[in-house]
Amino acid sequence: MDSLVDMRRAQLAELIERFTVVDGIHEMPIEGLRMARLSAPSEPMRGIQDPALCLIVQGCKQTMLGEDVYEYDASRYLVASVDLPITGQVIRATPEEPYLSLVLKLPPADIAALVTKAEEASAPLPPPSRGLSVSRCDPELLDAVLRLVRLLDAPQDIAMLAPLVIREIHYRLLRSDQGGNLRHIAMPDSQGHRVAKAIGWLRQNYAQPMRIDHIAEQVHMSPSALHHHFKAVTTMSPLQYQKQLRLQEARRLMLAEVVDAATAGHRVGYESPSQFSREYSRMFGAPPLRDVERLRAS
Question: Which residue range is the domain that position 259 belongs to?
Answer without folding.
Answer: 240-297
